[in-house]
Amino acid sequence: MKKPKLATVWCEACAGCHMSFLDLDEGLVDILSQVELTVSPLTDVKDFAFPHVDVGIVEGGVGNQENREVIERLRRQCRLLIAWGDCAVFGGIHTLRNGLSTGEVLRCSYVETAGTVNGVIPCHEDIPPLLDKVLPVNAVVAVDGYVPGCPPAPEVLAYCLKELLAGRLPVLPEEMIHFD
Ligand code: SF4
Are the C-beta atoms of residues 72 and 65 closer than 8 Å to each other? Predict the structure, then answer.
């Protein structure tokens, strides 16, 4: 039987949600034996010409033009798209910049920090421009499932992946939605 295909990306994120996935430890062996992992930070594939996949998973908010293009491409290529972690679900901590203009954000980050001398705002064609606001994934493309948490605990990720593999959209039981 053909294994379902999975692709994962991180956008404006800290990588913590993917690290939580790695914290499944030996549970990863079981899950990865049941899926074909294609483009993902875990496979270090950086070609975002995604193959068609059954499940696409997004970590992170949408904060720059590249993020937007990547999730739009993933959305076109996946059957189910899952927002994974608070940044993808709500925008997360990155939305703290949403009260400022992009010019103010760049000046605060590269010029006006207390320890910066002669700071310069980087500018290069390879650096994607910031969007005016950091957005949750569902503000840009349709999302089929949500896994909140910062990061979602490994057992929550395992539960969701097992539900997806069983052909069900994951609906988290109440005990998996509370945070200590
Ligand atoms: Fe990092 Fe938390 Fe955002 Fe995941 S939800 S990318 S762990 S800040």
Answer: no
- The total of other beta-carbon atoms located within 10 Å of residue 52's CB is 11
Q: How does DSSP classify residue 167?
A: T
Between the CA of 137 and the centroid of ligand 1 the distance, in Å, is: 13
Q: What Rg value do the Cα atoms of the chain yield, rounded?
A: 17
The reported pTM is: 0.91
User: 123 vs 83, 98, 120, 128, CA distance in Å?
Assistant: 30, 21, 9, 9
Report which ligand 1 atom has the smallest distance to the Cα of 10: 6
So where are the chain's domains?
5-98+133-176
* Tens digit of each residue's pLDDT (9 = 90 or more) over 37-75: 999 998 888 778 889 999 999 999 999 999 999 999 999
Give the Å distance between the CA of 22 and the centre of ligand 1: 14
For residue 60, report the phi and psi dihedrals to the nearest 5 degrees. 100, 160
Please name the residue whose Cα sits nearest to atom 3 of ligand 1.
87
Contact between residue 83 and residue 145 where contact means Cβ atoms under 8 Å apart:
yes
Q: In DSSP terms, which residues pair with 87 in a beta bridge?
A: none
Please tell me the CATH superfamily of domain 5-98+133-176, with its number: NADH:ubiquinone oxidoreductase-like, 20kDa subunit (3.40.50.700)
